[in-house]
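Aggregate trends can hide what the representation actually does to any particular protein. This step matters because it turns folding into a mapping between discrete strings. For completeness, the protein is quoted in full, as a sequence line and a line of structure tokens:
=====
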Amino acid sequence: MGLPSLLCMCMLVTLGGHRGVISQAPSTPSYGERGSDLGLQVFQQVARSRPQENVVLSPHGVASILGMLLPGAHGETRRQLLTALRYKKNGPYKMLRKLHKTLTAKSNQDIVTIANAMFSQQGFPMEEAFMSSNRANFQCESRTLDFTDTQAAAATINIWVNNQTKGHIPTLVKADMLDGDLTRLVAVNAIYFKGLWKSRFQTENTKMRTFNAGDGNSYKVSMMSQLSVFNIGLASTPQGLNYKVIELPYHGNSISMLIALPSEEDTPLGDVIPHINTATVQSWTKLLHHRKVRLLLPKFTAEAEVDLQASLSALGITDIFDEDKADFRHLSTEPVYISKALQKAKIEINEDGTKAAAVTSEWLLVKSFCFCLYLV
């Protein structure tokens, strides 16, 4: 059905030691724009590879986990990260702290929770500067585990993930994803979002209706309905494809859901997705205007697990996955590389939320659509 966005998300990066090298001892765009652009590029890569599936992804989560690795990288490994994230050499952390502060502001404390953690092998030597940078910029906590007991290590990480996502993602790591001999560090970013609609849907108006999915089939789904005033607009791609945009604000007015869907019935959503980047999303907010519309929105839960290695590699981030080329000398004196980059996300949309007079028109989201959460 093609429903990209986020209720709660976890992302994990697993660093392994090199084979045979086993430790013997236990004015430019803002950071948010840069990070989201990389994340949206990853989303486009994933959506292209899964044209018939729901895609649920957090762009901020992708940028955050790579940002956590950045102070440990050196040479070509660091250059690739800087280029993809579009950071200047002297670091993004002033803007990063500002973005984190905005997302976790008191006004959002009941809406957004962001947590970061690094689980390292007992005795694994990590550079203090690397750990200090992540504590200061990501409020990242550090814990030690014994990865030789893969079952217990996976259970510990999953308990942390389950707690941070309020039970929505109970399992992120499986024991067979860990190598008892080589796993040195697991970095995890978790985001939990629970937004209540500013204008909620009445449950008595929810009825079974037909939804036309991206796979070409039609399904009967629970469709929520309300007649209200929303910000709506009409946008177009550089190729001249028109699509509609509608804004659904959450309670508190600091975060909104922006929904885009093709104007023409025969235009596939996949033709619009490559056009979406942070500049596009920001342009939407300038063309929206108040109109009273009847909105029909599917009530649904979607989740997805994405292995990010192929998508990140396609965007030029390759050395971090290469056992021979990865250079994380500022992370540890022991050579390491990334053996797994995984994101797991889930979103739930219901009448309550996500866990001016004008001419009345119909706004029917009865076919595949794309949406994102936008910080106003």
In short: The two ends are 27 Å apart (CA to CA).
